[in-house]
Amino acid sequence: MDTRWLQDFITLSEVRNFTRAAEARNLSQAAFSRRIQSLENWVGARLIDRSAFPTQLTEAGERFRDAAIELVNQLAEARAGIAGVPAQNQLRLATSYALATTHLPKWWRAWTEGKLLSCSLQTGNVHDTVSAFTSGAADFLICFHQVAQPLPLDLARYDCLTLGTELIRPYAARALIERTGLDLPGTAARPVPLLMYSANVYFARLIDAAIEAAAEPLHGVRVFEAEMSDVLGDMAAQELGVAWLADSALQRLAAADLAPLPNRGWDIEVSILAFKDRADPRASVEALWERMKAAAQPA
Prior knowledge:
Layout: H1 3-15, H2 18-24, H3 29-43, E1 48-49, E2 56-57, H4 59-82, E3 90-95, H5 97-101, H6 104-112, E4 118-123, H7 126-134, E5 140-145, E6 158-173, H8 174-180, E7 192-197, H9 202-213, E8 220-226, H10 229-237, E9 242-246, E10 258-260, E11 268-277, H11 283-295
Parallel strand pairs: 3-4, 3-5, 7-8, 7-9
Antiparallel strand pairs: 1-2, 5-11, 6-9, 6-10, 6-11
Helix pairs in contact: 1-2, 1-3, 1-4, 2-3, 6-11
């Protein structure tokens, strides 16, 4: 028995689609299907009705889903207990590295002021963090979100809160902009050097969608790809090209002297959302959620 099979199954039970579930777990569909089949072999029953569309759980699958979520939560609490942390006050939060290094520190201070709470933080790409949350390995998910690129989450099951908004804008070294007049969309004769996110990063999907929907074609050449905005920001600071960065990322890149490009038509506005499972009964989870609501951006 591999505990990852439980997380795979819980994710599939949420999104009801093998392809989307495999993407959320960062697996090929073939590998994901093999792991679900291995779980079924271990359980000794069919958990998925593969003849239905969209994918449905069998009666046995519906019963096993609750057990799988409970098992994942118990394992996490057992690990926290062994580490010497009181399980009832141990909160597990999944978010991106970008949010963890910009907004989270000041948020956490406000949310926990006067309360004795501890946090186990998981950072990763959108696949990792959504998967950790939907599988029960995290109590809270905090992530960037745009309606045009929805996350594979069942909003009938999860509470959702808007913590704020953010602008993702194309930035370049100020000296490069002033010296060359660098701006988007560029021309066929002078394509813009682009510092882009790897395909598995949520920002990559947002930027690709913005480029496709733009009123004019982008003339650019990808000169570098990376998962982390800090890396792309450092590359931009070396005058190597244009990187789409969240405005908050500039706090960590203040010495880089980056500036947004003059053409504001390539800016992307995103929300920062928090999620929690409505069925989670722990008082510490509800207490933190109430603090988050009190400090959240007004609707």
